[in-house]
From TrEMBL:
Protein name per UniProt: Transposase Tc1-like domain-containing protein
Transposase Tc1-like domain sequence ranges: 1-67
GO biological process terms held by the UniProt record: DNA integration; DNA transposition
Gene Ontology MF terms: DNA binding
UniProt source species: Araneus ventricosus
Classification of source organism: Eukaryota, Metazoa, Ecdysozoa, Arthropoda, Chelicerata
Pfam families the UniProt entry points to: HTH_Tnp_Tc3_2
């Protein structure tokens, strides 16, 4: 449980490898899975959080109105939020451990 609280994105094979490093006994991934579930945790997809709040949007709008840009001016802006890039790891299979009640 200490490992899950320290790193909620820890995978079962990594938890099993942590136990097996330097230990005299070997623990399987399935044993770790059963133990984690019996302790009251479950693996879930992380919740998505909106990137812009209403306050952020209002600040952006006030900034845009401050400079009195025309539509033609805005056409020359490169928007960084239109494309998403992952350089080092994919988040397609990211899961987090949560306590259930």
């Amino acid at each position: 449980m200490r490992i899950l609280k320290r790193d909620r994105r820890a995978t079962l094979p990594r938890i099993a490898a942590d136990f097996n490093d330097g230990a005299s006994t070997s623990v399987s991934v399935r044993t770790v899975q059963r133990t984690v579930i019996n302790m009251g945790s479950q693996s879930r997809r992380p919740t998505r959080v909106p990137f812009l709040t209403a306050r952020h949007k209002a600040l952006l709008l006030s900034w845009a109105r401050q400079y009195h840009w025309t539509v033609d001016d805005w056409k020359h802006v490169a928007w960084s939020d239109e494309s998403r890039f992952q350089l080092y790891r994919t988040d397609a299979y990211v899961r987090v451990w949560r306590q259930y009640h």
